[in-house]
Design goal:
mainly beta; single chain
């Protein structure tokens, strides 16, 4: 019997772990089956600038990395490439900020172009303060004519590219509390607000509520002014504002107090010759009925006008004592646009006003 060594087997490639989540974790596959006519031509963010031709539907560029710092916003540039005609493409970008091997978390779709394009696009990518530090995966997806998701396989036309990004610790920006919050142009159902601009704010949040109510209504404001509408007449309100900065928000400002204007004769202040009056339906559309109860026969004027005082309907009626039913369904009523209106009735002894809504 003779002993000896055989030739070596064919080589098997493998890679050790320890390079970070970007290459260690098994991310969902995604690819296009046809990238012959259109592909991702360039991806630029931070210190990464990669230009490529078609990669047959999927490009593994995890050997390349961009350095990103928490709390910071970066400009990302994406360019489509074509063999000829420029087709309409939709770009989305995902980053696995918590390094759990997927792109499913709420803040991990970092850019969506919002519509199709056949030219280079730019957008903003914000790195949250709680992003896990270290190497993680970034995925860029381009899909013909439709919005792509992170884990699509067999995209008909387009391309997918994967990159690494190195998340480093950044410094949160200083986010000042806005000052000089004023309420102006207060009406029966609206008020304008303005405040002093803060240094690092990218937008603001405003919140308004009646003083006696615990819950606030929060609204986003892009600049240092805001109009609150659909308020109730003759009510005491308070308003606060805070700065929205890159990755953080300031505390709320001290409250500014204001009161919406009151309508004379609208609440428990009826003329002496008017016993009661009702409006229905409210909200109304093409038809409106008013019941007016009078102590004695009287000539009554009726007016409907908008919240800004523009008149929309006027008429006069000779009414009897007791309950009178007025049915308003004229062309003028039908032509009123949707919104808030006020109905004013005037009797010999005074007037009364009620608010209605046209839908």
């Amino acid at each position: 019997m003779r002993y000896g060594a055989t030739v070596f087997s064919a080589p098997v490639e493998f890679k050790t772990y320890g390079c970070g989540s970007c290459t260690d974790l098994p991310y969902c596959p995604s690819n296009s089956v046809d990238a012959e006519d259109e592909w991702i031509a360039n991806v630029t963010i931070s210190n990464l600038n990669n230009t490529s031709m078609s990669n047959d539907g999927y490009g593994d560029f995890t050997s390349l990395s961009a350095d990103l710092m928490t709390y910071q916003t970066y400009t990302i540039g994406l360019s489509p490439g074509y063999s000829g005609f420029g087709y309409n493409e939709w770009f989305t970008v995902f980053i696995d900020f918590n390094q759990d091997g997927d792109f499913d978390d709420s803040d991990e779709e970092v850019f969506d172009v919002g519509s199709t394009t056949n030219v280079p696009v730019q957008g903003s990518v914000f790195v949250p303060g709680d992003a896990v530090l270290g190497s993680t995966r970034m995925r860029v997806v381009m899909k013909f004519n439709n919005e792509p998701t992170a884990c699509e396989q067999g995209i008909a036309h387009g391309e997918v590219e994967d990159y690494c990004v190195n998340i480093m610790e950044g410094e949160p920006v200083s986010c000042e509390v806005p000052t000089m919050l004023f309420a102006n142009n207060i009406s029966i159902d609206s008020a304008d607000f303005s405040w002093k601009r803060t240094t690092d704010a990218i937008s603001y949040e405003v919140r308004v509520k009646p003083e006696t109510v615990p819950n606030w209504q929060v609204i986003l404001a892009q600049d240092t002014f805001f109009t609150a509408s659909n308020l109730s007449e003759c009510v005491d309100y308070e308003c606060q504002v805070r700065s929205v900065c890159s990755g953080t928000k300031s505390n709320w400002s001290p409250s500014t107090l204001f009161k919406t204007k009151c309508i004379i004769g609208s609440v428990n202040n009826l003329p002496s010759d008017l016993l009661n009056w009702d409006i229905f339906p409210n909200p109304f559309n093409e038809h409106l009925e008013i019941n007016i109860a009078l102590k004695k026969p009287a000539f009554v004027n009726l007016e409907i006008y908008s919240a800004n005082g523009v008149g929309g309907y006027k008429n006069s009626f000779q009414l009897n004592s007791g309950v009178n039913n007025l049915q308003l369904n004229s062309d003028k009523i039908n032509s009123l646009i949707s919104g808030i209106y006020f109905i004013k009735i005037m009797t010999p002894d005074g007037f009364a006003i009620k608010r209605v809504v046209k839908i």
